[in-house]
Design a protein that fits this description.
Blueprint (H helix, E strand, L loop, with lengths): L9 H10 L6 H21 L12
Length: 58
């Protein structure tokens, strides 16, 4: 993992990096969008703290 410079938002650095990519065609644009969706989905899974609230499984 890279460390963000002082005063620079790491999330914004990533967004800028994504925006700097030159899209070649619609397929490439879709691939870039899917990469972003996959990262967002994985992040949601990593932060999912839901628990089974049915005590009958214990």
């Amino acid at each position: 993992m890279t460390k963000a410079k002082l005063g620079v938002d790491k999330n914004l650095q990533n967004v800028v990096g994504d925006l700097e990519q030159t899209v070649v065609n619609s397929h490439h644009a879709q691939q870039i969008q899917q990469d972003s969706n996959d990262r967002r989905h994985q992040d949601a899974l990593n932060h999912d703290k839901t628990e089974d609230r049915d005590p009958s499984h214990s």
